[in-house]
Amino acid sequence: MNMKTALVLLVLAIATIFALVCVLLTRGRGPSTCQQQPLEQEDTGGGQSLVFADLSPEEMVQVVRYLRGALGVPLVDASRAKPSDNCIASIDLQVPAKAEVLRFLDEGGARPPREALAVLYFGNQPDPNVTEYVVGPLPAPAYHRDVTVRRYGGTVPYHRRPTLAVEYQQIMEVLRGQVFPTAPSFMHQVLEYDGANLAALTAAPRGFQSGDRITWFALFQNVSGFFVHPVGLEVLVDHSSLDITQWTVSRVFYNGQYYTDMVQLESAYVQGRVSVQKVRRAPLDGDFSSMKPRAPRAAPFPLQFEPQGPRYSVKNNHVLFQAWSFAFGMSVSRGLRLFDIRHQGERIAYEISVQEALSVYGSNCPGGMSTRYMDGSFGIGHYTSPLVRGVDCPYLATYLDVHCLAHSQLPRTTKGALCIFEQNLGSPLRRHYSNLQSLYYGGLVNSALVIRSIATVGNYDYVWDFIFYQNGAIEGKVQATGYPSSSFLHGDGLRYGNRVWEHTLGTIHTHFINYKVDLDVGGVKNSLVAHDMVFEMTRAPWSPEQQIERPQLTKEVLDTEDQAAFRLQSKLPRYLYFAANSKNKWGHQRGYRIQISSFAGDHIPEASSMERAISWARYQLAVTRRKEEEPTSTSIYNQNDPWTPTVAFTDFINNETITNEDLVAWITAGFLHIPHSEDIPNTVTVGNSVGFLLRPYNYYDLDPSIYSHDGVFFTSEQDPTACDTNPVACLPAAASCLPNLPPFTYEGFRNA
């Protein structure tokens, strides 16, 4: 072997060794961590959205401190107040008047003063009442004004006050300490009562006429998922007196029979005159009601991630996503709300907010048959729950804290109670494949921004979403899950639901959700227009002896509030839209269409003595003139006095003209729930989702999503695997990175 050959072999050997070393060094190395790219657009709002921002804990503390010093009366912490005390029930943002806000946002006017709305219970005075004060300016309050009469046309009687958490605690103390001990044999032998193994669930409203505060409490085994563990005992508590020592049980129900009190029940039991249905004692995990998985762990579920970081921004209470921007907040009573919603810089809506969640139950037990829950009175925002990363929202969503002051004089922070995320919905927003004449494909992934909160009000969990699509549409959606409420199965119980366990009747009930949608389409002044269709019978022009049935467009301007009030089961025009005073390129009035998704049950008969309190549920849609004195469709005081409602929505509809006016759409969506065995252990969201869509209707000259950066288009003459032709082809390189997953944390039980 000559020297030249040896050198060549040596070089080849060195190159081979080098290549092998490179392979070995890189074989175990995974892809790099995804790097966040700067957003194409910056948030240049200058903090204007803060006019809608929720109160900070510091501001809440300042309001409490001011009221304690300025009112000149003793204020007891609401977490330990007796009905005969004065206390601060809640503090929330006082949203400024719309005209003031628009002058500030659109005309460079002065920023409206920042104010709080405080609800106070005055039980320690000759004329007990509920009073609402506006307190400001924040962050250093210097004034307060009583707005109760201006808002409600009179004072709010004390019996209408929403029930504080401490009042339920006081009722349970009376039951445990004074009532249950009067039936020792029954309680121990039938219910195996040990002082802690029973939980109570309130019915509402509380009585049959104004002034009543008499509540049925159904008893359940105190285990996980107690809502489906009824024991058959229910008690009617009269807690109308401001003196707790005067509270009494005025009726008792057990397994289909009524008794005057627990003493009579005990006597009947000892004498063998009670039909006993003893319920097997459940373990603490609830057994059949436990949500603990019954299957071993397997491969992880699919995970979405953002290869170049989020394509949206959240600054204070302002969100920016592609062509969308909006401000968000959380009302203590009504929950999630949005303000100043804009697309391509133009305001589409001034406010979109949840108003109320109503459930009407049926049963042959007194607690169930008398229940009509109005969740706003309990506090949809107050009971907003902490979110579990990766389950309640995508793992990589943005999680935000929510601050609230209610039922206590101290603010409470719920960690990670609101989430914002962009979601690839796994389907095209639009697409077309052409194999006729020209050969091409065009499409756009349906990727949308979601803002979500979940409120757990008693047994139900409501998942509240507002969704923003690239074509300019907005969706408001609620999904219901949690535990079904139940009654003890006895007698003719199957007329009111399905048996879901040995002694458990899943009781029939309705859900009604009400939204306020203050659209400002092309400006504040709008009209309501209905488009629909009829079949027109005509003769074929080329063959007059033949008849053709062709769809024809119908058009109608709805001039008055009465015309725009659509009853729950009535026929709604298929295309109903808010029309602007401007036209698009093609000569049509620019508009936004309202499309409702609902399969509601029937509304309570209007002959009912309490129907006016929930009269918003008469209508699937009602459009009224916007008025500052009509800010909400209901009141937190309606729950405990529905017979003389503080706010009756039907009074909003008085045949005023709605042509070229500032209008509000009040939307009601709902569903009928007949619980069934698959609602055990609890109800799933699938099929239990209702809401509405706001869709551009001739608002643009063409679909605005055509300007999305996510669009895909290629022809038969192009290489679809080339990045410069098809952005999806770039994904193997652009998305071959590891998402930066933060460690899982959860602080949801810290304030429980």
TrEMBL record:
Keywords assigned: Copper, Metal-binding, Oxidoreductase, Signal, TPQ
Any GO molecular function: quinone binding
UniProt domain Copper amine oxidase N2-terminal: residue ranges: 75-143
Domain Copper amine oxidase catalytic: residue ranges: 304-706
Residues the record lists as 2',4',5'-topaquinone modifications: Y460
Enzyme class (EC, first level): oxidoreductase
Cofactor info, note text: Contains 1 topaquinone per subunit.
Name recorded for this polypeptide: Amine oxidase
Pfam families to which the protein is assigned, alphabetical: Cu_amine_oxid, Cu_amine_oxidN2, Cu_amine_oxidN3
Post-translational modification note: Topaquinone (TPQ) is generated by copper-dependent autoxidation of a specific tyrosyl residue.
InterPro entries for the chain: Cu_Am_Ox_Cu-bd, Cu_Am_ox_TPQ-bd, Cu_amine_oxidase, Cu_amine_oxidase_C, Cu_amine_oxidase_C_sf, Cu_amine_oxidase_N-reg, Cu_amine_oxidase_N2, Cu_amine_oxidase_N3
Domain Copper amine oxidase N3-terminal: 161-256
Cofactor section: Cu cation
Gene: Aoc3_0
Single GO BP term: amine metabolic process
GO cellular component, one term: plasma membrane
EC number: 1.4.3.-
Recorded family membership: Belongs to the copper/topaquinone oxidase family.
Species assigned in the record: Psilopogon haemacephalus (coppersmith barbet)
Signal peptide residue numbers: 1-19
UniProt-annotated catalytic positions: D375, Y460
